[in-house]
Amino acid sequence: MQQVRKVVANEFEAVNQLIIDQLQSNVPLVENIGHYIVDAGGKRMRPMLALISGGACGNLNKDHLTLAAVIEFIHTATLLHDDVVDISTLRRGRPTANAEWGNAPSVLVGDFLYTRAFQLLVSIGNMEVMTLMAEVTNTIAEGEVLQLTKAGDPNTTEQDYFQVIKNKTAVLFAAATACGAILAGSEQEEIDRFYQYGLDLGLAFQLIDDVLDYEGNAGEMGKNVGDDLAEGKPTLPLIYTMKQGSKADAALIHSAISNKSLAQLEEVVAAVQRCDALTYTKQLAMAKSKAAAAVIDNCPESPYKESLVRLAELAVARNA
């Protein structure tokens, strides 16, 4: 990841400074919570994608810096809201904002970040970008609600699962890359290619996230193993195990999801592994990673394109 970031090192540093500047508020609690979650770091893949996509399309400019900050603010707002909804206590190895300050401040600061993101969008002044970002933000909200309705529902299908992760996760990746292309002055065909690249990359990324919930290391991931099960989320490894496993395995998973319980976490992990559900999920993630790389194959060769291909590989070859 560090090698990929080097391609846009100067721009990435400028984006980080812009994020810090835009966290300024007359209300100290807004700045405190905003800095707390932003300073926690993370991969910053989404804002980096906005920058690298602009470079890959041949025109990385100052508007891409603002776009990258917008993407990060929207993502951070979703994290604040997610942690409240999921009653999470740990993110990126630290207590969540809601664990430190409470639910109400976390939700309201998330709202602040959303509105600040759209203030920045207005400053870019590109209606095509504003339209896409408005649509994507609405889709993310729908994805959050859809995921909430599926929590504790063991009858969730694989199709349902993919609709959730597309809406909740992948579309923001797609917005970052497509808007990067738009601001570079690309033609619609290229914008569409970059949107599809981001969508496939986001799906691959989330699939691996769901694998790591059953075989990851809490210290490396910065969150608790089994969190998804505790929230009753029917992720693909569980859906596959119920479909392909024995009646006993299916009943075990069914009960764990319905009760949103970690009481039998070890047995659930054993069942998921016994049914090769993690292997199946990884294979789908790899297919999406390869599809992402393939869709930009015709783009001119450049360090930016190489970085996009490398990011697709890194999305699946990670342990956190």
Automatic annotation (TrEMBL):
<dbReference type="InterPro" id="IPR008949">
    <property type="entry name" value="Isoprenoid_synthase_dom_sf"/>
</dbReference>
<keyword id="KW-0460">Magnesium</keyword>
<protein>
    <recommendedName>
        <fullName>Octaprenyl diphosphate synthase</fullName>
        <ecNumber>2.5.1.90</ecNumber>
    </recommendedName>
</protein>
<comment type="similarity">
    <text>Belongs to the FPP/GGPP synthase family.</text>
</comment>
<dbReference type="GO" id="GO:0046872">
    <property type="term" value="F:metal ion binding"/>
</dbReference>
<dbReference type="InterPro" id="IPR000092">
    <property type="entry name" value="Polyprenyl_synt"/>
</dbReference>
<dbReference type="GO" id="GO:0106350">
    <property type="term" value="F:all-trans-octaprenyl-diphosphate synthase activity"/>
</dbReference>
<comment type="function">
    <text>Supplies octaprenyl diphosphate, the precursor for the side chain of the isoprenoid quinones ubiquinone and menaquinone.</text>
</comment>
<dbReference type="InterPro" id="IPR033749">
    <property type="entry name" value="Polyprenyl_synt_CS"/>
</dbReference>
<keyword id="KW-0479">Metal-binding</keyword>
<keyword id="KW-0808">Transferase</keyword>
<dbReference type="GO" id="GO:0008299">
    <property type="term" value="P:isoprenoid biosynthetic process"/>
</dbReference>
<dbReference type="Pfam" id="PF00348">
    <property type="entry name" value="polyprenyl_synt"/>
</dbReference>
